[in-house]
Amino acid sequence: MRVAMYACLALAIAACGSDRPTEPVSHEASVRAVVGAGATDTVDTQLLQALIVEVRGAGGVLASGVLVRFEPQVPVTSYNYTLSAYVCGLAEPVCGGSFNGGSFYADTTNAQGRVGAVVRLGPIAGRAVVRLVVPELGLEDSATFTVTPGRATGVAVLHDIALDIGATATLLGHVVDRYNNIRPEPTTLAAGSGTAITLNAATGVVTGRDMGTQWVFARYNSFADSTRVSVVPAGRILVWSSLERVVRIVNLNGSDERTIVSNVSSSMGTFPRFDPTRHSLTLHAGDAAFGESPGNVIVIDTSGSPRRDTGSPNGFDAVIATRQLADGTVLVVGQRSADPSHPGYSLWRVAIDNTITFVVAMPDMGSVYGGADISHNGARVAFVGADLRVLDVSTGATTLLDAGYAATPRWSAQDDRLAYLVPTGGSAAFGGAVTIINANGSGRRALGSFEFSPGISWSPDGTYIIGRASDNFSGLRVLRVSDGANITLRFSAPEGWCCRDYWQPDWR
Q1: Were both Cys, which of 115, 153, 285, 396 would link to 264 (CB 3.0–4.6 Å)?
Q2: To 10 degrees, the CA torsion angle through 193, 199, 205, 209?
């Protein structure tokens, strides 16, 4: 059968059905497929009928001896430039893909103005296009084919998703072939054990019920696949990527990500913080490794503009913490060699016009990464040196809250509690497990042994704490204060790699 087919192709390139050229469609120059286009078959199929192309020159006269290029196109659904089809010469027994080229073929027309090529369909279901180009005459047309999925080889569902508590999403399971082309057969859905979600198996609608993760399974005959649904509190956070040197704002479920400021970093961390209106933020930047002056305090709108910098030479040599107050001034825990009368770390006030004034000295403050936090009303400063203390700004007196190593204290939005990290081993500079304590020193309570990197934050209602999970890199962990329940958040990058490594969040 195959021998007869190729013999026929060699004897009559008009595709065994006609040995006469077709009548011209018009009396203009043209190139068109006269046989073989429009076929429908499954992925990877090499079509028995060749693609025959006829070329006419000026006046509609058959053009012999002119070059025709067969150029398979990449479909818009291809993510790796896979061709929609492959083309080869008529004598090729197997064409294209991993077998024998097929990404391009060219030949000249015979005396009847015709030329042919073998077509093998590609691996992507849908519309396949082969461009037909005659460079000498400036002509172009195309031949199209329909590629259908292959036999069922598995089931696929959406990638892992994150939902706000109370939100819904629709999960669809698909029967797929070996190339993940979707077939028409329906799948059955079922939820795994847990209480984080409810699932309507008939519609695929998933509803987030409680913080946590739960699996959803899709099945068809012996095939199965699963996806993990993470349910998170609704929230929007500021984050810093030390790798990308950017500060972004993003929802906890990973949606609506937006870069606010770029090219910022600091050997002391940037620690972005919302102002009282939640429409502006402060951060401290300046890294000598990037040729930046240390201790620059930046105040910037969440839209990215306007922006103001304290800058050098009258700015700070080092900054540990910032807090913008309701009147627009910024309190800063930092060092200023420009004011030698107040050596070491002190609390300073930066006016809207960038005038800097001394507030109170902090002689027990060490040069500790993220080692201080100014209360939202500006009345107190929690800081670590040899231990955890609270400074009363008006009197300069300090109160011991916790003796021993501690890191990155953070005030709750109500300024009634502090969260801080206690190292489970090694130095406090590398973070530790979360402990909370009332502002008066009572009610000290550890919230499990989960490791966090320096830089944590409270939710506005005091229900949750969020920080970088140092025992699970490339993720932020949300911890519920009441019972220690937790979930790790992943922030996928649009570039396709997983995942963004975010630090030092602040919860809007």
Answers
A1: 285
A2: -80
